[in-house]
Design goal:
Number of helices: 2
Helix content: 55-70%
Radius of gyration: 33 Å
Structural class: mainly alpha
Largest sheet: none
Shape: elongated
Number of strands: 0
Length: 90
């Protein structure tokens, strides 16, 4: 999972037994509970982000549709003056 092998896992287990001794099951239960809470919180944030992304995609799609389907009477002629070449003197 974290790129550690069997040897590293055994060393970590031995260190955990030395540090926590008889309290190791209690500590493991507490750490597991916090890990589960963290995963639930991350899952909620992820679902909210997916929901917000879907809302944004809906707005973008609706805006594109509105831009592509304009009515003829909404079309306006350009109002800027057209460029005219100066007359040449003979």
């Amino acid at each position: 999972m974290f790129g550690i092998g069997v040897g590293e896992t055994i060393v970590l287990g031995m260190i955990a037994v030395l540090l926590f001794g008889k309290r190791l099951p209690e500590v493991a239960k507490t750490v597991g509970g916090h890990y589960a809470k963290l995963r639930r919180a991350l899952q909620e944030v992820q679902s909210e982000l997916y929901k917000a992304q879907g809302d944004v995609n809906d707005v973008v799609r609706d805006t594109k549709q509105q831009l592509l389907t304009y009515e003829d009477d909404d079309y306006r002629e350009p109002t800027a003056p057209q460029f005219e070449l100066p007359e040449e003197d003979a």
